[in-house]
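hey can u check if this looks right to u? its 460 residues, i copy pasted from the old doc so theres a chance i mangled smth
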Amino acid sequence: MLKRLSRSFHQNRIAELCSRCHDGLILLRGELDWFRKRELRLFDPAYGEPNFKQEKNLYYLTGIEVPNSFVMIDPRDGRAHLYTDWDGPREIERAKTLGVVDEMHASTPLLRDLRIKSAAYECIYTLYSPFPEAGSLVAKTGPMTGIFPPGMAEPLGDDLQFARQLTALFPGVRVKSLHPILQEMQKIKLPEEIELLRRANEIAVSGIIAAMKAIRPGLYDHHVAAVIDYALLHEGASRLAFPANIMSGPNAFTKLLHLWSDYTHRNRRLEAEDAVFIDVGAEFQYYQSDIGRTVPGSGKFNTRQKEIYELYLRCYSATLESVAPGVTQRDLLNKCVATMQEQSRHLKADYLRKAAEQFVQITSARPMLGHYVDMNVIGAGAGVDEPLQPGMVFVIEPLLFSEETGFAVFMEDTILVTEDGYELLSKGLPNSADEIELVMSEPAFLEAPVAEAGLRSAPR
């Protein structure tokens, strides 16, 4: 199994980047060590991860995992120079043996070398949020909004502050963002990336299977999340791509932003009649997965739940089978909607017709059924009307809600476009209601505790 991207991969990526940035010097800024990040984010309540992870784009291009580092690449000769004051011998030695960096320097001479080398170029490329041009800085014209009260100037991200500092230090040189160039480079995944994405999905599948086996009335959402966390890390995930989303009962009907903004939303106890959304992502060697399933809280779909689930599944399956090179994301969305519209003509039950109508309305308003995946959960890929190409990787995740029954359905799979169709990178997950019930009947290592009210979990 591939453990990390190879030297040849990084050399290929640097060469490709140089061919796209022939008019400018390239400057990449790495992630800080934990102590420096702590100072920078002292009052950030969400920050608490001490383990180092390199800035994704720098890693994608070079494989270097040295904290507090800068990499300067001269596109005319393709040489990469590492500047750092990091004194950890392990990381420095790894950077040397990787064979991608041509020279290593202390941080002090970086600006001097940048001034000397940039004199031969029209611009400097660095990484920051891309927005329309504004003077010598090809940058953001509209700042972040809603951070400070109305009437105050909004803050700038540290990436844009860095770019602005460069324009101040080098007034005769334009500063451009690498972001759109890297997004274009990352649209089509190379074989090594696909192998890492496949492994990230295999790990995520194990987490969902473990959760399915554990779910039963009496557990709380945080118990299920703990099972998933254990399963992912036990199977070799580098870390979680995101905290597992366990949305049971009414939480499945709640907007994600509102749900995530509820500090205690995982403290909900599972009930037998609940629909439970399981949305899981694993990270393996920087590459992400994002997959999901819906299961019944009792372990068995009742009649109405099963009818709703199967109504959804026919749309999902038809969409999946439509994936092929040349098809667009809009085509896939239209296929999903058309399949539901065709089914709705034959529905007799009022609750099914209403669910189908709402599904068509909600889904038709979306630009696409999901998103692309790579080193980012929301990754790079084709536009909604741009034909899919082999090597593109994305997820689909339509949603169906039945307000009358209190049941909702969500599935999510990771799809690789191939020369003759597609490959399901998240294979191994159950699809049909019968398959889900079978998995949920299998033994789990976590049993439901006796609830405070004295109710016990339903026997299986």
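The chain has 14 helices and 20 strands.
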